[in-house]
């Protein structure tokens, strides 16, 4: 287990301990303010202990009246709290994440809050969060497009907006390909920002880093890569940026197919951006990998002049 994951889980343990301390504080406050409630709590503890002893010794007929008394006491406790102006749920434990009860897991599955924390830590040094501040749907502009280029970009923009609005209910993959500087990564960032703001865990990764992780897994190397490898399959959305910039090999190409295929089987969406043409993709990657992409992805071609150069000329 790597240090990053261990630190996050330690944080959950501390948060849960804080939740319980705060609950105890509220219970103590109510008990001090409402003596009758404290008496009822003590009675509940005593009768519960008696019932447990009788049940364990086989005296089940004597347990029933005790359970009935516990029910009566429970109703009186509710009435006493209500008459004293204590809000409903005031004495219950209050979790930051009610879904996993601040444990990080729902059963054996990572909670969305844990995946979000992992995303934040994985991406902390990548600079992606700084990019998302300036590259999002709110900052997107069509001013650098004209004619057919603008028409094409408007269609892509609408498809990206629909992807985010229907993400929770629809399984969809997208491939962005085309010339350098035509907005592929920008559009991926728009989608990432929109979904992350809605609480969706997004694993955003460069192709170079992706293939480092795949290589480490294939050759059984230990470290942070192990948890990141699992993240490739678990996250609701995986964004692979600049496919084709990595040093490729048949080994990692096979691993890439495994990732894409498994995500497809789990109906977990993936977005891939690349400067390569479709013909070039077929040259570099195996037929299995390319057919997985071309057959299961909505494909959008970006074309036109380099927007970054246009912005430089304007400034």
Describe this structure in words.
This protein is of the alpha/beta class and 315 residues long. The protein folds into two domains: 81 residues; 204 residues, 3-Layer(aba) Sandwich (Rossmann fold), CATH 3.40.50. It contains 13 helices and seven strands. Helix 5 packs across helix 7 and helix 8 crosses helix 10. The chain is elongated and about 80 Å long. The chain starts with a helix and ends with a helix. The model has no long low-confidence stretch (mean pLDDT 89).
What labels describe this entry?
alpha/beta, 315 residues, 2 domains, Rossmann fold, 60% helix, single chain
Q: Which structural class best describes the helix and strand composition?
A: alpha/beta
Spatial strand order of the main sheet: 4-5-6-3-7
Shape: elongated
- Structural Rg: 28 Å
Task: Describe the structure concisely.
The protein has helices at residues 3-33, 35-56, 63-83, 112-123, 128-134, 147-165, 184-197, 207-218, 225-234, 250-265, 278-284, 287-296, 307-314; strands at 105-106, 109-110, 174-178, 202-206, 237-243, 269-274, 298-302. By secondary structure, it is α/β, with parallel strands linked by helices. The chain has two domains: 3-83; 111-314, 3-Layer(aba) Sandwich (Rossmann fold).
Please render the helix and strand layout as text.
Elements: H1 3-33, H2 35-56, H3 63-83, E1 105-106, E2 109-110, H4 112-123, H5 128-134, H6 147-165, E3 174-178, H7 184-197, E4 202-206, H8 207-218, H9 225-234, E5 237-243, H10 250-265, E6 269-274, H11 278-284, H12 287-296, E7 298-302, H13 307-314
Parallel strand pairs: 3-6, 3-7, 4-5, 5-6
Antiparallel strand pairs: 1-2
Helix pairs in contact: 1-2, 2-3, 5-7, 6-7, 8-9, 8-10, 10-12
């Amino acid at each position: 287990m790597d240090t990053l994951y261990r630190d996050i889980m330690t944080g959950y343990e501390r948060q849960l301990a804080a939740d319980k301390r705060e609950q105890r504080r509220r219970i103590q406050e109510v008990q001090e303010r409402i003596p009758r409630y404290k008496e009822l709590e003590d009675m509940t503890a005593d009768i519960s202990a008696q019932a447990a002893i009788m049940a364990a010794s086989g005296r089940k007929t004597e347990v029933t009246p005790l359970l009935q008394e516990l029910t009566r006491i429970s109703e009186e406790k509710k009435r006493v709290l209500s008459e004293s102006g204590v809000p409903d749920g005031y004495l219950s434990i209050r979790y930051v994440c009610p879904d996993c009860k601040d444990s990080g897991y729902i059963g054996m599955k990572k909670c969305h809050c844990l995946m979000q924390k992992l995303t934040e830590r994985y991406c902390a040094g990548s600079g992606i969060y700084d990019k998302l501040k300036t590259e999002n749907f709110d900052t997107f502009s069509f001013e650098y497009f004209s004619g057919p280029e603008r028409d094409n970009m408007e269609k892509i923009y609408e498809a990206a907006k629909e992807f985010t609005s229907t993400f929770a209910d629809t399984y969809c993959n997208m491939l962005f390909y085309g010339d350098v500087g035509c907005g592929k990564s920008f559009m991926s960032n728009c989608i990432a920002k929109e979904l992350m703001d809605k609480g969706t865990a997004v694993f955003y990764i460069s192709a170079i880093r992706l293939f480092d992780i795949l290589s480490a897994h294939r050759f059984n190397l230990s470290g942070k890569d192990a948890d990141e490898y699992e993240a490739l399959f678990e996250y609701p959305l995986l964004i692979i940026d600049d496919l084709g910039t990595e040093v490729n090999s048949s080994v990692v190409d096979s691993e890439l197919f495994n990732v894409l295929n498994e995500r497809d089987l789990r109906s977990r969406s993936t977005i891939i951006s690349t400067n390569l043409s479709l013909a070039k993709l077929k040259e570099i990657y195996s037929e299995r990998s390319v057919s997985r992409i071309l057959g299961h992805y909505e494909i959008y071609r970006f074309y036109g002049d380099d927007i970054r150069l246009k912005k430089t000329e304007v400034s």
